[in-house]
Amino acid sequence: MAPPKPGELTFVAPRGAKKPPRHLADLSPAERKEAVAATGEKPFRAKQLSQHYFARFTQDPEQWTDIPAGARQKLADELLPELMSVVRHVSCDEDTTRKTLWRLHDGTLVESVLMRYPDRVTMCISSQAGCGMNCPFCATGQAGLDRNLSTAEIVHQIVDGVRALRDGEVPGGPANLSNIVFMGMGEPLANYKRVLGSIRRLTDPTPDGLGLSQRGITVSTVGLVPAMLRFADEGLKCRLAVSLHAPDDELRDTLVPVNTRWKVREVLDAAWEYAAKSGRRISIEYALIRDINDQAWRADLLGRLLKGKRVHVNLIPLNPTPGSKWTASRPEDEQEFVRALRAHGVPTTVRDTRGQEIDGACGQLAASEPTE
């Protein structure tokens, strides 16, 4: 096994775990041609398969009328195996928010959420099954890490969402996907190689990929500094979101345990490096937790850390998990927090929380599903 590159965390799969099957979306266009040729078919069939998957969203070989009937199932088996199946969809907000629970090939459960607003459609996707960051207020973090998702398992969440929008499965008529946020289950930069591969697939021109804009993609991190610096050198135009949750190391060591390794100022310095190289504004994610991190003096400290930087603060009223001692801030404390940040000239908004009645917090739906 090759040693990890700087910023890449290693992950040892549980004994007996099966790797996800190889899929078209795991491969670059050149690798797809090689894989098709290895089946005995002409390499140009790779472009046809890409067209079916990324543009037509047709995975049924019987519909691939531009491919000889005798080759369809063989190509499907080799390059378009079933990666994941829907366990259930749950909806709220008049069906404009739809959460999907997926079962992967090995029985692992992950989640994605599609949110339709009047002016945009956003999908929140998972990059890992579970999470190893151990943040105590997060349902996924408390469940622990099962495994990394493959590039194709990440991509397929979006492909299915784009298909659902095209087919009018979400009320409001056919629509296009506006934004993708890597804020579902997992720490994206702890699955660096596959997350980067998924971004390439999502933004490669059709039919090699979905042809989406990098500027519509946000990648979240709790602050894996070496990976953040490596990400800054990729030449991407994605937005980086830092899940800060506390401006002082004493509290953040508890709320975001990775802070014991990389402190607040190191994390922010890496974020400013990404902003400088990408030209994109940094998003600071801050879950407001009652009587824990929502004091006015912490808002003032955060404002002083961020003042004058290319940044936007996204305050998130905590979506509590069942039985948790953590809950959302009082409205008056939230308002004071916003006022204090804006007094420093820091652009600040409060996230429109959705999905509380459908186990909307990341990891809640998977946690509520009986194991097989």
From TrEMBL:
Signal peptide: none annotated. Residues 1-39 are annotated as: Disordered. InterPro entries: Aldolase_TIM, Methyltransferase_A, RlmN_N, RNA_MTrfase_RlmN, rRNA_lsu_MTrfase_RlmN/Cfr, rSAM, rSAM_sf. GO terms for molecular function: 4 iron, 4 sulfur cluster binding; metal ion binding; rRNA (adenine(2503)-C2-)-methyltransferase activity; rRNA binding; tRNA (adenine(37)-C2)-methyltransferase activity; tRNA binding. Its cofactor is [4Fe-4S] cluster. GO terms for biological process: rRNA base methylation; tRNA methylation. Its EC number is 2.1.1.192. Specifically methylates position 2 of adenine 2503 in 23S rRNA and position 2 of adenine 37 in tRNAs. Reaction proceeds by a ping-pong mechanism involving intermediate methylation of a conserved cysteine residue. Belongs to the radical SAM superfamily. RlmN family. This is Probable dual-specificity RNA methyltransferase RlmN. It comes from Streptomyces tardus. The gene is rlmN.
